Amino acid sequence: MKHILITGVCGQIGTELVRKLRKELPNALILATDIKTPPSSVLSFADFELLDVCDTQAVQSIIQKNQIDTVYHLAALLSATGERHPALAWRVNLTAFFDLLEISRNHNVKMVIMPSSIGAFGPTTPRDNTPNLTIMRPTTMYGITKVTGELLMEYYYLKFGLDCRGMRFPGIISSETEPGGGTTDFAVDFYYKAVQNQAATCFVREDTILPFMYMPDAIDVLWELAIADSNRLSTRIYNVTAFSASAKDFENAIVKKILNFKVDYQPDYRQQIADSWPRSLDDSLARNDWGWNPKFDLEKMTIDMIKNLRLKLG
Ligand code: SER
How confident is the model over 106-159, as pLDDT tens digits? Predict the structure, then answer.
């Protein structure tokens, strides 16, 4: 029986990952944790304990007490929040992660899965079809913590045999839990505003192109990479993407379904962050090594998002 720990379960990914894990592993111990109480949906799929990932003693005790063998480490500050609170971003995204890796190798954890991000790239990275292995000199604190986290994962794998696996997610869009403090959040906001017949204000220019993915695909990435045969993995960290779109592409896709939707473009400090990230990713390594294949493009996702949000928001 698997003993799984999830940190940061209240975030955009965690609230949906628990459902998938419970479905795939009906008998597993799934211990979800966060610094705040989760929505009731989480409690129906997993046990829950309050946990501050910066409290190393508490992390160690939870791992020991529950004989955890697999960790999904989702607790993190996103890019825009990280720019406002760089020291906190370093502590949560990196110091806590380093401590978690140390605890993991000392207490029989077999696998650690941590999402990385397009934020791990920087302005000197080739921006189109960005390769898996390329220049990585991010200029945000978020990016610095992510690229360092990636290096630590490779190190703990090579040095201690800890099975660390990570994926560089693009902007993730979902109808269930709203993201908080990310640079790609504008795209999610468009859908919420459109369904409520409101105009959106967008904090990046309309020609800003970034890679994206719909949450059901992101959940598949987390699951499929975790169960992939280790012998088939040629790296520890994989680029993954579904489609690239500009802010205007999102507006146009929504207008096809909700005719009166309008967007007011008012770029702020987040424009600079977006401009330092890839426009598109080469994820052929993920496709070849473990069969990654997204199911949703912009149009299909838009139909599903609008349907789900109409049900949710009434
Ligand atoms: N979506 C995240 C952000 O915008 C990047 O991984 O911060």
Answer: 999 999 999 999 999 999 999 999 999 999 999 999 999 999 999 999 999 999
Which pLDDT belongs to residue 179? 87
The answer to whether position 230 is within a domain reads yes
Q: What total number of domains does the chain contain?
A: 2
**Segments forming the whole domain that contains residue 93:** 3-170+213-239
- What spacing in Å lies between the alpha carbon of 171 and ligand 1's midpoint? 6
Q: What is the pLDDT of residues 4-43, one digit of tens each?
A: 999 999 999 999 999 999 999 999 999 999 999 999 999 9
In a domain, 291, yes or no: no
Closest atom of ligand 1 to 170 CA is: 6
Q: Which residues of the chain have pLDDT under 70?
A: none
pLDDT at res. 11? 96
Please check whether residue 4 is in contact with residue 70, taking contact to mean a CB–CB distance below 8 angstroms. yes
**Which of 72, 142, 157, 265 is flagged as catalytic?**
142
**Residue of 99, 100, 86, 71 whose CA lies nearest to 144:** 86
Q: Is residue 62 part of a domain?
A: yes
20 and 153 assigned to the same domain: yes
pTM for the predicted model, two decimal places: 0.97
Q: Which two tokens stand for residue 221?
A: 């990435």
List all residues 6 or more positions away from 282 whose beta carbon is below 8 Å from its beta carbon: 129, 130, 131, 132, 239
Nearest CA to ligand 1 atom 6: 117
Same domain (yes/no): 224, 206: no
**Whether residue 181 sits in one domain with residue 32:** no
Asked if 217 and 242 touch (Cβ cutoff 8 Å), the reply is: yes
Return the biggest CA–CA distance within the chain: 57
169 within ligand 1 shell (Cβ under 6 A): yes
